[in-house]
Amino acid sequence: MFRHWPHCWYSLTACIALAGCTTQSNQLRRGDVDAPPVAAAPCVPVPLVLTPGDVLRMSLSSNGLGEALESESRGQKGSGCTTCLPSRKQTKLSAELQGHASDEVRNTTAGLALTAYFRLAEARVQMSLLRQGVEPLEALIAQVEELRRQGLPIPEEGGKLDQQRSKFESDRLEIELLNERLGEQLHQLVCKAACLPPDSCSTITTIEVFHVEDRAIDEAEAIAVGMKYRPELNFLRTAQCNLDVGTLPVIRHVMLGLSSLLAGPARRCVPILECVPLLMPGLSRKEVEKVSKQLLAVLDERKRQTISDICQAVRAIHTRQRLIHLARDREAMAQRKLDEAEENARQKLGKPVDRPRARQGLLKARSEVVHEVIEWEIACVNLRKAQGLLVREGTEKAKEACAEGGR
Questions:
Q1: What letter would DSSP give residue 329?
Q2: How far apart are CA 335 and CA 250, in angstroms?
Q3: Residues 187/192/198/200 CA torsion (nearest 10 deg)
Q4: Which of 332, 244, 316 minimizes the C-alpha distance to 281?
Q5: Using CA atoms, how far apart are residues 390 and 399, in angstroms rounded to an integer?
Q6: Residues with Cβ < 8 Å from 380, sequence gap 6 or more?
Q7: pTM of this prediction exceeds 0.90
Q8: b vs e for 140-166, b when ≥16 Cβ sit within 10 Å of the residue's Cβ?
Q9: pLDDT tens across 331-381, in order?
Q10: Integer Cα distance of 371 and 202 in angstroms
Q11: CA separation for the pair 242, 88 (Å, rounded)
């Protein structure tokens, strides 16, 4: 009898536990023991002021896939079978490829983050200009109403003012929506490095100070830089240069896509099986030749695409520089018109609507300048992304930040 006592004790304990769960479940269904909901603390938005350099550095360290590939690369360097040469060679090659893949992913993400940052900066400036434009529009509407009450003739523009006010309101709503979307996108790209939870309601604030430079970029030199530093090209070159019978299994994973690199080796190392292709190279020579041709075709295609991206970015930079000069000329002309309208108003000359209309023209010209400047900034980002320089710049900025923090 006593032999079965532990089993009886376990059964009794289980029954008590189940009875407690059943009782609690019944009470919850009756609804007489529900605790009152605890009101969540309101989320107070905290502004986070970032510079383009901050965004570049944070986007690199916040990239999950890039970190996973980098971690896998570091792990591969200390792993693998040490008893056979093919396994050591495969492990070394896999680690190097994963490092290049990590750089490419981070380079692309940095480009997205910087583009979102400059678009957000443009939206913030445009919203400020839009608010400034409402004041002269309301002044025009008030003047038209006054003319209507006095029975005086109304200018031709008077009948379109209500339509313009409606357009202003539509533009304001669209910019607000764009501001929220870009802020959320940028928040997700840098939240980890900024020590912010994904559901944080902190708002990212940009610094709207832009220094446009007239750059005479040599297209051939820019292409040469891209051919040297673009991680995607170095990834394919590394695979191409290290392809042989022993590394063929790793290269097969490369052909399947970068994401397969995270899986790692799916089998244990059996030295004799690893060395069979070396002892009987005829079994895999044709496969090596086929994969080599495939890699070379992909590399040539990616080179052509990289050259095209660099050329387009360089031409966009040069074009935007000219467009900025033209937009600034229009801004200067609009400023002169406003000065003349204000002088006429002081001397009681001209029409009452001249000054508000001139101010609206100046705000529109400034808006065009801001747009062209942002397009120039994004073209510069696209060039550095196409060349593979963003990940290098971000790594250097991270080292500088660590050095400053250690002082």
A1: H
A2: 64
A3: -70
A4: 244
A5: 14
A6: 313, 317
A7: no
A8: bbebbeebeeeeeeebeebeebeeeee
A9: 999 999 999 988 887 887 777 667 878 888 899 999 999 999 999 999 999
A10: 26
A11: 13
